Amino acid sequence: MKRRHTTTGNLTRLLGGGSTPLFVMNGQRKLLVFNRGCEELTGFAAEDVVGRISHYGSSGETPVEELTAGLCPPPEVLAGEQRSTPAYLTTTTGASLPRMLNFYPFCDEEGQVIHVLGIVSAIPQPPPVADPTAAQTVHAELAALRGNLRQRFGQQTLVCKGPATTRMLNQIELAQHCQAAVFLQGEPGTGKQHLARVIHYGGDTKNTAFVAVDCRKLAASEIDRTVTRLLEAATDPAARGLGISAGALFLGHVEHLPRDVQRRIVKAHDGEEPPALRLFSSSCFPLAEAVEREDLLFELQALLTTVTIEVPPLRDRPEDLLLLAQHFLEDINRRGEKQVGGFARAVVKLFTEYNWPGNLAELFKVVGETHVAATGEMVLPADLPFRFRTGFDAQHLPPVEQFTSIPLEQLTSEYETELIQRALRQCKQNKSQAADLLQINRAKLYRRMEVLGIDDADPGEEE
Questions:
Q1: Please, is 19 exposed, middle or buried when counting C-beta atoms within 10 Å of its C-beta (0-12, 13-18, 19+)?
Q2: Are β-strands 210-214 and 182-185 bridged in parallel, bridged antiparallel, or unpaired?
């Protein structure tokens, strides 16, 4: 133990005072040296950074965690390879600096990496011949995108860049600067509740509570208690006098909200002083359909839909797919010791060919299971879970043959007519025998013949 301390001390004395930004970490990704050049570049002091464990990702709960994540070498370096990769380094001002990180691993006699030297340089123009891997490019692009979106929307995570989400992002930005009710419509698994949290925590009421209620899963009595408590707190005169907001209420699958609770919310907002409680809601369908089915009060629909945001499905966001998958992967890296760098090209191809019917929720589960299964630095096709492989195969099955729809009543009437006529022919128009053959009484046979328009003026009938 004493020898390790001495080695670290020597490294700090040797490298700590240089103006060229460089850093050193051990094989467990613990930062040992963060020199003066790095301090001047980022604004962080060495004591803020040294001793922290970095993870291969582009996010962190604090700016210094985001910086250490940016400094983490890709898994290939920890396996002994020398690499240069682009990265975005977070500064104390919140800016993201594009830089090239040049990693040099040092191994012991057994080939195990014991230290990694990182030298920070400007990104050369033109880029170096040894281009970074596709996974490292996605990693750097994600870091840049997250930095830009963080400055625009706050610390809550957003990963969007494609045209399908442009309108949605603009609406989110507008919603963050007002207290109007927000309704989010989209398929299951598209992240509607998360977007509501982004709006809430990116606005002026970010220090207040955000209470989420799933109207489809929770018991009616529990929903009633929760909403009643929030409305009481939001109408408390003492809280109003102190300028205190009760926060926000999110009603997921709002079309399942009990009728009496719907009336209570509408009544609370009908007064001269509506409650200081912002309303968020979500559904997979337009609320007008719920009103038409009489599942939702029209007054509540009008109250909830001041701002309506349509959340696109993942299949309409091809530009975001790989960035979202990388984001989920790096988030798992941050929470554990195992570090996976990205997805092999064959996996990327499969991901882009899949329709993702479960949207972001399905992608999150698939990435989580691949992270567990991966044994190397990258996710390979063999690491993909059974849920994905079966879904992918099912997607490529030939379509089910489509039949022309026939009204059930018409079909049954035609079949019944054919059976009665067959029985009458077999019994030579003797209705008593035909009724016995059909196992019904004679009176019912007459009634059915009249309804179906079967002629009963036939010879051979028993009187």
A1: exposed
A2: unpaired
pTM of the entire predicted model:
0.70
Give tens-digit pLDDT for 105-155: 999 888 899 999 999 998 876 544 344 567 777 877 777 777 777 666 666
Distance CA 431, CA 146 (A): 82
Can you tell me the mean pLDDT for 301-326? 94
Q: What is the rounded distance in angstroms from the CA atom of residue 247 to the CA atom of residue 197?
A: 11
Cα 347 off chain centre by? 20
Report whether 103 contacts 115 (CB < 8 A).
Answer: no
pLDDT tens for 54-98 read 988 877 778 888 899 889 998 889 989 999 888 888 898 878 888
To the nearest 10 degrees (0 to 180), the angle between helices 259-268 and 220-234 is 10
Chain mean position to CA 166: 17
Assess contact for 343 and 219: CB atoms under 8 A.
no
Higher pLDDT pick, 10 / 282: 282
Q: What is the 3-state secondary structure (H, E, C) of the chain?
A: CHHHHHHHHHHHHHHCCCCCCEEEEECCCEEEEECHHHHHHHCCCHHHHCCCECCCCCCCCCHHHHHHHHHCCCHHHHCCCCEEEEEEEECCCCCEEEEEEEEEEEECCCCCEEEEEEEEECCCCCCCCCCCCHHHHHHHHHHHHHHHHHHHHCCCCCCCCCHHHHHHHHHHHHHHCCCCCEEEECCCCCCHHHHHHHHHHCCCCCCCCEEEEECCCCCHHHHHHHHHHHHHHHCCHHHHHCCCCCEEEEEECHHHCCHHHHHHHHHHCCCCCCCCEEEEEEECCCHHHHHHCCCCCHHHHHHHCCEEEECCCHHHCHHHHHHHHHHHHHHHHHCCCCCCCEECHHHHHHHHHCCCCCHHHHHHHHHHHHHHHCCCCEECHHHCCHHHHHHHHHHCCCCCCCCCCCCHHHHHHHHHHHHHHHHHHHCCCCHHHHHHHHCCCHHHHHHHHHHHCCCCCCCCCCC
Whether the Cβ atoms of residue 340 and residue 378 lie closer than 8 Å to each other: yes
Please tell me the distance from the alpha carbon of residue 5 to that of residue 215, in angstroms, as a whole number.
Answer: 57
Q: Is the pLDDT of residue 212 over 90?
A: yes
Residue 100 bridge partners (DSSP):
86, 121
pLDDT band, very low/low/confident/very high, at 102 (cuts 50, 70, 90): very high
- Who has greater pLDDT, 272 or 292? 292
